[in-house]
């Protein structure tokens, strides 16, 4: 009677352990932080829970709200340089000039060792 229970426990553990070992890439922090109100930044920093594959790392910045303009369509911010950190767990978006007052959304995607591309977004406001 105990043998089938033990076999079931081992089989269940075999299903769970690979899931833990192959955790997907997640954004663990950023500067500016999500929902923050900040002075005009000259860079945006993203930090991930694991090293990312450089060729898969992408980021976009869009202005989603402009003071004095209702119903503002998202406006892509272009001309920034994206650099991966030496540990490949961080990506810095270097802006040509500080961001103007408004609301911004950063959208990112990247894959880690498991090669599954993950992504997300966060917003912040520049005063």
From TrEMBL:
Q: Name one GO molecular function term.
A: copper ion binding
Intracellular or extracellular location(s): Periplasm
Which portions of this protein are annotated as coiled-coil regions?
none
Query: Quick one: a GO cellular component term?
Result: periplasmic space
Q: Mostly located where? A: periplasm
What InterPro entries does its record include? CopC-like, CopC_dom, Cu-Rt/internalin_Ig-like, Ig_E-set
A single GO BP annotation from the record? response to copper ion
Enumerate the spans annotated as CopC domain. Answer: 24-126
The record ties this protein, via Pfam families, to:
CopC
Signal sequence extent: 1-23
Task: Provide the alphabetized UniProt keywords.
Answer: Copper, Periplasm, Signal
Claim: Signal is one of the keywords in the record? yes
Please verify whether the record's keywords include Signal: yes
What family does this belong to? Belongs to the CopC family.
Q: Which NCBIfam families does the record cross-reference, listed alphabetically?
A: copper_CopC
Q: What is this protein called?
A: Copper homeostasis periplasmic binding protein CopC
Its encoding gene is what? copC
């Amino acid at each position: 009677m105990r043998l089938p229970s033990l076999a079931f426990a081992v089989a269940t553990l075999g299903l769970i352990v690979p899931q833990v070992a192959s955790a997907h890439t997640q954004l663990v922090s950023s500067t500016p932080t999500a929902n923050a109100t900040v002075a005009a930044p000259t860079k945006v920093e993203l930090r991930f829970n694991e090293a990312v594959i450089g060729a898969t790392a992408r980021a976009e910045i869009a202005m989603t709200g402009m003071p004095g303009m209702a119903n503002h369509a998202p406006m892509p911010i272009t001309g920034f340089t994206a650099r991966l950190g030496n540990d490949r767990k961080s990506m810095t978006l270097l802006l040509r000039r500080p961001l103007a007052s408004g609301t911004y959304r950063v959208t990112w995607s990247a894959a880690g060792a498991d090669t599954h591309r993950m992504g997300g977004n966060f917003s912040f406001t520049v005063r």
